[in-house]
Amino acid sequence: MTDPAEAITVRLFGGAGNQLFQYAAGRALADRLNCPLAIDARYLSGERDDCFGHFANARLTRNIALPPAKQDGALRYGLWRAFGRAPKFRRERGLAYDPAFFDLPRGTYLHGYWQSPRYFGDAGKLRRDLAFTTPLDAPNAAMAAKIAAAPGATALHVRRGDYLAAGAYAACTPDYYARGAAEIAARTGGPLTCFVFSNDPDWARDNLDLGRQTVIVDLNDEAVGHFDMALMAACTHHVIANSTFSWWGAWLAGGAGITVAPKAWFADPALDNPDICPPSWLRL
């Protein structure tokens, strides 16, 4: 069993996009310290399961003694957070990149979102870690072939539903997607085929007028959402939502195309993460 005092442990929470950021930061710190990376998946629940069954190349261990969890009792959990040493609790201090992150020692337990590529280590190594290893089923394999054959394959991610209910994020407008597609077409000088991924495909059909060939990809529900991320990563260009899910769909594509991201990531103007997108991405 891995000694928690000799490892970096990262708490997983949220959906797949959040978990991939948590892994990427933890992996980079563990590589810097030349030590194992462990994950704590006890805070995942419901449909948001541990996503790493689809990324078998990820370099992590689950074979580690974990500290007390919240469900073990408030006193035990609170004492560990305040005084525990193996591992020692470290909570993210803000949304922006924290340069002190890479001064953390072995035996650190990371709790946070860590949503910035500035926390990443070697990008090529990380993309190899996060190559999809779950085989596509027949409908998704057919869609992947369609994407591969399409001129200017461009993924557009339209996230509504939970975003409209939560209030922390503002759903991107039809105008944003039209402008994003137009910007990519202008910069590439060629035709685009737009593949639209959405948790509300009927809304996308009724409201998106992109002025170019459009395919609504409505093959997958929440339980098999990893297939949507794999298909997004197979596209050349991307117009993402303010969503870590489509963020990773674009980043895992390898950076050869153009990625458009919304300038306003949060609905609340008091919230801001200036480091969430790579500098090469276009913000509209």
Strand order of the largest sheet: 7-6-5-8-9-10
Please state roughly what percent of the residues sit in beta strands, choosing from under 5%, 5-15%, 15-25%, 25-35%, 35-45% or over 45%.
5-15%
Stretches where pLDDT is under 50 for at least 5 consecutive residues are: none
Radius of gyration, whole Å: 20 Å
- What's the pLDDT, averaged over the residues? 93
Q: What is the CATH class designation of the largest domain?
A: Alpha Beta
How many runs of DSSP E, i.e. beta strands?
A: 10
Query: What is the helix/strand order?
Result: EHEHEEHHEHHEHEHEHEE
Percent of residues in helices: 25-40%
CATH architecture of the largest domain: 3-Layer(aba) Sandwich
End-to-end Cα distance: 48 Å
Number of helices: 9
What is the number of domains? 2
| Biggest sheet record | 6 strands, parallel
Shape: elongated
> Helix/strand/pairing class, anyone?
alpha/beta
CATH fold group of the largest domain: Rossmann fold
Report on this model:
The protein is of the alpha/beta class and 284 residues long. The protein has 9 helices and 10 strands. The strands form 2 sheets. It has a 6-stranded parallel beta sheet with strand order 7-6-5-8-9-10, with helices on both faces. Strands 2-1-4-3 form a 4-stranded parallel beta sheet. The longest helix has 18 residues, at 16-33. The N and C termini lie far apart (48 Å). The mean pLDDT is 93.
Please give a handful of descriptors for the protein shown:
4-stranded parallel beta sheet; elongated; Rossmann fold; 284 residues; 6-stranded parallel beta sheet; single chain; alpha/beta; 9 helices
